[in-house]
Design brief:
4-stranded antiparallel beta sheet; disordered N terminus; 600 residues; mainly beta; globular
Length: 600
Amino acid sequence: MDNRNQYRASLFNFSGTMLIVLLIIAPGLLAQNFTRITNGAVVSDGGHSIGCSWADYDNDGDLDLYVTNGIVNGQEANFLYKNQGDGTFVRDTTSALVSDRQFSESSSWGDYDNDGWIDVFVGNSHWGGTSFLDFLFQNQSNGTFQKITDGTIVNTAIDSRSIAWADYDNDGYIDMFIANEAGLNYLYKNDNGTGFTRITGGTITSGIRASAGCAWADYDHDGDLDLFVANMSNQNNQLYRNEGDGTFTSITSGSIVSDGGNSIGCSWGDYNNDGYPDLFVANFNNQNNFLYENNGDGTFSKISSGAIVSDGGNSFGSAWGDYDNDGDLDLYVTNLSNQNNFLYENNGDGSFNKITAGPLVSSAGNSEGCAWADYDHDGDLDIYVVNFDGQNNQLFNNDGNNNHWLNVRCVGTTSNKSAIGARVSVKTSAGWQMRTISGQTGYQSQNSLRAAFGLSNAQTVDTLRVEWPSGQVDTFSGVGVDQRITVTENGGITGLGLNDTQPMNFQLKQNYPNPFNPTTTIEYALAQTSWVTLDVYDLLGQKVRSLVNEGQNAGQQAAIWDGRNSKGQAVASGMYIYRLTAVPTAAATFTGFGKMVLLR
C-alpha cells in the first residue's frame, strides 16, 4: 500500500473527540451565501471519490460533471452526471466513461483530436498490489465515447496521480502530462490527433519522484506553458520552465522548489491581478500550506503570514474562483481527517479573510478534489466537492449577489480547439483581470474550461483580450456585462445580448450599427441546434473573414465583426456581404445574406 493510501487508511480507523468551537462572526465576514444541494444522485451516490471535473461533453451548452472513484470496499465505477439545464442532473450509467471499475484518481477534459467534441483522459492508480492502465476516451461527436486501447499512453501501468492536458509545444494539439507517485513522470506528445508519442528525454521525465499533483501555466508570460509538480514524502517540489523548443529547464533556486514537504495539490491563479499567475500548494500531514506570489521576473516570493498559509491541516484539493464576483480570485481548500474545508475571501489588497461560517466550511468530511463552475448559468460560481470515505459528495449552489459578471468560452482554430493555455483578460474601470484556460486546476480536478470573471459594479468591459497559444491576440472593446459569450480565435464574439427564448424560425437580422466604424453586431435566430457558419465577403465574392464556424444551440445568437480580415488587418471602407448558413439535424439548411457598409 502506498504512502498516501496508508495515510487514508489511518484516517478511517481514527477515533477521537471533536472539539466544538463557538465562533463569533465579524460583520461582513460572510460575504456570500451558498445552498447545499441535498436532492439527486449527484449528491447521494456516496462512493470513494477522489477527483471531479466539469465539461460540456454533449455540446448542449450545459456543464456536465464527471467524478473519479477509488477502490476500498470492492470495485467502484466512476460517476457521470448529465446537466438537464434546469439545475438538476441525471446520472448516466451506460456511458463508456463509467463502464470500467478500477482505481481512478483524476480526469482531464480536452479536445485532443480537434473535432469540436471534448474528450477525456482518466488517470488510474493501484490498489492491493494491482496496477491499472490509464483510460483515454474519444468523444464520438455525439456525446458518446469510445475507449482507446492502442498506444503506450493507455498500455503502460504506472501509479498515475494527477494528469493534465496542455499544448506545451504550441503545435495546435494538446499533449498529456502524468504525475506518478512511484516512478518517472510521463509526458506524451500528441501526434496531430492520431495518437501519442512518449517523450523519454529531458529533465521533465527524469528522476524517481513521489509526485501527486501537477498544473500548467505560463508563469513567465513568454507564450508557452510551464509546469509545476507537487511531490510527497518530504521531497522538494519541481518547477519546469518551458524553453519554447520542446525542452524544459528545471528551476533549482527559490523557495518554490526548496521548501520540501508533503505536497499534494497545486493551483495557479492571478490573485493580485497583476497579469502573472501565482501558485497555491496544498500540504497534508498537519503541515502548513504554501502560497507563492509571482514577482513578474521569473521568480516567486513565499507568503509567510495570514491564515491561508498558517492554518495547517491535511489539505488535498484547491481551486481558485471569484465566487463573490467582486473582481478578484478567492480560494477554496479541501481537507481530509473530517476537518472542515477552508474558504478564503480575497480582500483585493493581497490579503485574505478566512470564512468561518456557512455550509462550504462547516460540512466536515474527507474531502479531496473540488472544482468551480457556473452550472446553472446564473452568473456566479458554484462548487462541487468530493469525499473519499464513502460519504456523499457535495454540490453547493451559489446564491449570488448584485455584482456583474462575464463568462467567456474560447474556441481555438489555429490553436487547440479547447483553447487550453489561452490567457483571457478583461479590463474595466477597476483594472485588469486574467484567467488561464487549464487542463487541471487543483488536485485531480478541473474547473470549467470557461473563463469566469466577476466585474463588481462595472457597467461594461472596456477591453476583452484573448492571447491564444498560437500567438494570435484578439481584442474587443465595449463588451456588455452579465452574459455568456464565445470567442473564436481570429474570429468574432457570439452570444452577445442573448435571452433564452427559443425562436420558431431561422432568421438573419440586419447588422447594427450600419454604416459602422469600427465594429458592428450581426444577430440571428436558430430554431434548432445547428452547425453554423457566418462569413464576410467583399463585392468580388472573396471571403474576408469567418466569424462563426461551430455548433450552436437553438436560440438568439449574435456575432461581432471588427472590420478586419482573417489576417487581422483592417479592411478598406466599402460595402460587404455577410452570409449565414445553419445546418440543423432535422430540418432543411437555412441560408441568409445581408449587406453592411464600413466607413473609415
